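Quiz preparation item.
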């Protein structure tokens, strides 16, 4: 394949633009916000799961407290009715009075037991609500942090996309100046050589593989026609002769 020396040097401009585009693509994929958001999502999922558990526990304890309150209230009402009967003088039988007083005593003990159970439930509920509040606060903080990270990420992506668009326009302009066959070969080599399909010869070294060429290869390059498209014997990339080449 042949191409004028100026065209070959222009291929190096294309290579430089492609490397810049690769760098932009890498930056887009490796923005710190991506990892931060992934970590935040993982942490938030744990908090969300724990919050569901806390909500369930609080709901269960609230029902248990209502039942405890109701149980205490029912026994208190029964005691109040018995006490009212006792105070009213309606019960005149000594045995009935004894039974009524005994029942009031039993109800007092029952109320005491129920109040203890009620207090225990209230303490459990208070602790559960504290955990629930902490988890909700953390969940809200995660939401705020997520919004900040997404805003930062979107701004960075917008800037990188603008860079990519500008580089893409420049690349299209350079590519329009090059023969299709040369671009095709360059693209194929670029795909198989880590993104570098063409490299300059600087001194005696191919800047694609950074290897110093053998004297026989340098002699071949020196005697090759100026428009010959050469390849590095070490890495196979297109080797472009420049003013810095020692040939």
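Solution:
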């Amino acid at each position: 394949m042949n191409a004028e020396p100026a065209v070959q040097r222009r291929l190096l401009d294309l290579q430089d633009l492609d490397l810049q585009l690769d760098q932009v693509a890498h930056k887009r994929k490796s923005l710190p916000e991506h990892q931060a958001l992934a970590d935040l999502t993982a942490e938030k999922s744990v908090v969300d799961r724990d919050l569901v558990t806390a909500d369930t526990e609080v709901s269960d304890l609230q029902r248990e407290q209502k039942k405890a309150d109701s149980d205490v209230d029912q026994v208190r009402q029964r005691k109040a009715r018995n006490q009212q009967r006792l105070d009213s003088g309606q019960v005149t039988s000594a045995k009935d009075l004894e039974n009524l007083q005994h029942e009031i005593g039993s109800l007092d003990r029952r109320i005491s037991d129920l109040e203890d159970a009620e207090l225990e439930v209230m303490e459990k509920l208070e602790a559960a609500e504290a955990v629930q509040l902490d988890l909700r606060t953390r969940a809200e903080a995660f939401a705020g942090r997520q919004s900040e990270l997404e805003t930062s990420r979107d701004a960075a992506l917008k800037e990188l996309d603008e860079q990519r668009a500008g580089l893409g326009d420049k690349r299209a302009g350079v590519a329009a100046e090059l023969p299709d066959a040369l671009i095709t070969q360059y693209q194929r080599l670029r795909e198989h050589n880590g993104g570098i399909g063409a490299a300059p010869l600087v001194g005696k070294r191919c800047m694609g593989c950074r290897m110093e060429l053998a004297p026989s290869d340098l002699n071949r390059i020196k005697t090759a026609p100026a428009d010959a498209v050469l390849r590095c014997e070490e890495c196979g990339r297109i080797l472009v002769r420049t003013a810095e080449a020692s040939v």
